[in-house]
Amino acid sequence: MNLLVVGASGFLGAEVCRQAVAVGHRVVGTYHSAAVAVPGVAPRRLDVTDRAAVRALLTGVRPDAVVATPYRYDDWAVTADGAAHVACAAAEVGARLVHLSSDALHAGRPAPYLDDDVPTPVNAYGAAKAAAETAVRAVDPGALLVRTSLIVGEGSKQIQLCRDALAGRAALFTDEVRCPVHVADLAAAVLELLPTELAGPLNVAGPEAVSRAEMGLLVARELGLDAGGLRTTTASALGRHHPGEVRLDSSRAAGLLRTRLRGITEVLA
Fold first, then answer.
1. Residue 235 scores a pLDDT above 90
2. From CA 183, how far away is CA 9, in angstroms rounded?
3. Long-range pairs of 58-61 with CB within 8 A, sequence gap ≥ 24
4. Counting C-beta atoms within 10 Å of the first and last residue's C-beta, which end of the chain has fewer, N or C?
5. pLDDT of residue 241
6. Percent of the chain scored above 70 by pLDDT?
7. How far apart are alpha carbons 51 and 59 in whole angstroms?
């Protein structure tokens, strides 16, 4: 397969590239500032906010499939407009598109969210991810929208945040619940889903819901660190507009995939 990974220098994008190369795919990976450092990947610099540049790249590469992971937390143009540009270009060249979305487009509630639950964003980032989904679905109804959660693994921002909280340099929220997924599991699932005809939103996250503070305790146990210094707080106390309890029901994906989506307790065992 001729595969294009948009955002290949990111945490997930790089893992998708590594696994794709390992199974023999021809891989082109894009980056914006930090260069792609995965052996066997042809790097291409790309600004996803430049629609003409996105179109020119895909027209030149002619990929069979595109995995789109671009986002910037505080940048609508990258997260929303960039996703639309990639979707338009992928549709133009007839490429299969798997777009990476996020649980951040939900507000939070006690009941788990199903695959097709309508987004209810509470902050700008969630709204951008929801807008990205809307654009992708409008351009390419056959695209797959993978809604995922906190991505963990060695080198992840989420694990580093836990380390910082254990060292007193940050604080973890007790009122934010997520379903963390290991980067290797998520990348394998994405590659497994590429050749399918699945379309629309699909939850692909870990089966276990924990608060960020609980994840910090699991990291402390894994690293053999004293959890007594773990700093915690609440998003509400700080006046932050963050999603609260967001549990993704990934049972449909689990039933479709050969890849096993491990829970965070197992990942950090």
1. no
2. 14
3. 58/4, 58/86, 58/89, 58/90, 58/92, 58/93, 58/95, 59/89, 59/92, 59/93, 61/2, 61/4, 61/28
4. C
5. 77
6. 100
7. 12
| Assigned token pair, 57 | 């790249």
248 phi, psi to nearest 5 deg: -85, 125
Closest CA to 101 of 255, 2, 246: 246
Beta-strand ranges (E) seen in 154-266 are: 172-173, 177-178, 181-182, 200-203, 210-211, 232-233
**Which DSSP helix (H) or strand (E) runs through 16?**
helix 11-22
Kindly tell me the burial class for residue 6, based on how many C-beta atoms sit within 10 Å of its own C-beta (0-12, 13-18, 19 or more): buried
Q: What is the pLDDT of residues 33-51, one digit of tens each?
A: 888 889 999 999 999 999 9
Question: Residues 45, 70: contact at Cβ < 8 Å?
Answer: no
Once rounded to an integer, what is the mean pLDDT over residues 114-123? Answer: 96
The CA distance from 156 to 266, in Å, is 17
Q: Token match 């390419």: residue? A: 140
Q: Which distant-in-sequence residues (6+ apart) come within 8 Å of 201 by Cβ?
A: 101, 115, 116, 133, 145, 147
Q: Give the global pTM.
A: 0.96
CA dihedral 69, 138, 246, 117 (to 10 degrees): -150
Across the chain, how many H-helices and E-strands are there? Answer: 10, 13
What does the block give as tokens for 102? 């996020």
Instruction: Give 117's DSSP letter.
Output: P
At residue 33, what is the residue type?
S
> CA angle 80-85-87, nearest 5°?
95
Which residues are registered as beta bridge partners of 148? 102
Q: Do residues 86 and 98 touch, judged by C-beta distance below 8 A?
A: no
Does residue 240 surpass a pLDDT of 80?
no
